[in-house]
Amino acid sequence: MKKRSHFLDMAILGVLRNRDLHGYEIKRQIVDELGLFTSISFGSMYPALARLERLGLVEVTQGRPRGQLRQAPFTGSLGGERAIAVGLRVTGGADETRSRGKKVYTLTEAGRGTFSGFVNDDFDHGDDDLAFRVRLAFAGALEPEMRLKLLERRRSSLEARLNKGKFSGSRSILDDLYAKCVIEHTQSETVNDISWINELIDSERRRISEHTAQ
Amino acid sequence: MKKRSHFLDMAILGVLRNRDLHGYEIKRQIVDELGLFTSISFGSMYPALARLERLGLVEVTQGRPRGQLRQAPFTGSLGGERAIAVGLRVTGGADETRSRGKKVYTLTEAGRGTFSGFVNDDFDHGDDDLAFRVRLAFAGALEPEMRLKLLERRRSSLEARLNKGKFSGSRSILDDLYAKCVIEHTQSETVNDISWINELIDSERRRISEHTAQ
DNA sequence: GTCATCATGTAAGCCGTTACATGATTGC
DNA sequence: GCAATCATGTAACGGCTTACATGATGAC
Prior knowledge:
Two copies of one chain form a homodimer. Chain A is mostly helical. The first copy, chain A, has helices at residues 5-16, 23-33, 42-54, 76-91, 109-120, 129-137, 144-168, 177-213; strands at residues 21-22, 58-62, 103-107. Chain A has a three-stranded antiparallel β-sheet. The first copy, chain A, is globular. The two termini of chain A are 43 Å apart. Chains A and B meet through helix 2, helix 6, helix 7 and helix 8 of A and helix 2, helix 6, helix 7 and helix 8 of B. Chain B binds a DNA duplex (28 and 28 nucleotides) through helix 2 and helix 3.
């Protein structure tokens, strides 16, 4: 049911939620800043964007040249418009569709809806690390109770993992020092994750009760 | 260069290093006990075994029925032989190659060599988590100095990751609370990993110096 | 003026997942 | 006897990686 590429799609829509960006920068943010995927090749990034465009979830506008996006968001209006003009001039020869200028992607209303469906959906029973990380990264788009649900589902899935590990760890491999070492480290990572989730749940609850109190 | 499937191959050869096992059990050990892959489908497990067999890295012997492998390795001789006979009798009708009895895989000498090449090889610059976990799990097969090298390479790659995160974390996404939260947790996981590696390196050094001292 | 980086894409091939198909064994 | 689990496989489909191809920009 749930294809892996859905997470890439979701991450793309997620970073486009607040900002219009071009493909190269989208990849940079997903991989280098959010660290959601260890790597994404352009061979999967650009086709993904094309797919999303076909589905009407993003729109393409001919982009401003490099450098304008990063610095001085204040100068946007003047500098930005000029930049777009420059961009069009450079690429605006005969061969319009093949122009290699930067393509800036904008989330459409449909895209917003799909993204919202993504983060809210229960479709995976919380057993996938990647699914959780991606959802949490964009959990700002969720209702507080959904956020709490997400976290609690994650916690119970981590606890299940921990218990499974306790049972299975005691058989054939255990005589190998290094294998054991890897197993134990995995377990301790899970324990860490659980207490992290617990903190998140606590602060989420605090925030909710503060909100309903005042 | 390095295909993902190589890690599955390596893990298979690794668990077969000390024990002859059948496919289902190999998968159980790799996934449930070692936790090296979050999941492997049989659709990739069995083809992998077939590939390794074609390459002469593993050999297939018709297996004993279920239950014999887990309990009482002592009774092996008598119980085992009888079991093999039973296994053959059950499936040994007309359609010999199609027999669906358990297939028990044994590592060949060539397989041992390939496995040894796997763990020792430097071919990846240490930037892949999976590669490291798999190597460490079977690091018992390494010379102490190679083990130390493996750990030190891992440490420097984690430190690089940490530094990269410090630089890139401070730009556009940072206004989002949950994105920030994911980023910080990733960083703290890396810090944890580094201190874990440091402990391993220390105990490895201690072991080496003890060994050369006595 | 050239090199590194930014920027976008296409095509091939691999491989892993999914779904399907079969059958043995164990526990109830 | 029936269900769940153990156990092994095949075929199709999708998508990711790799390699290739192109070109602009900025720094030195």
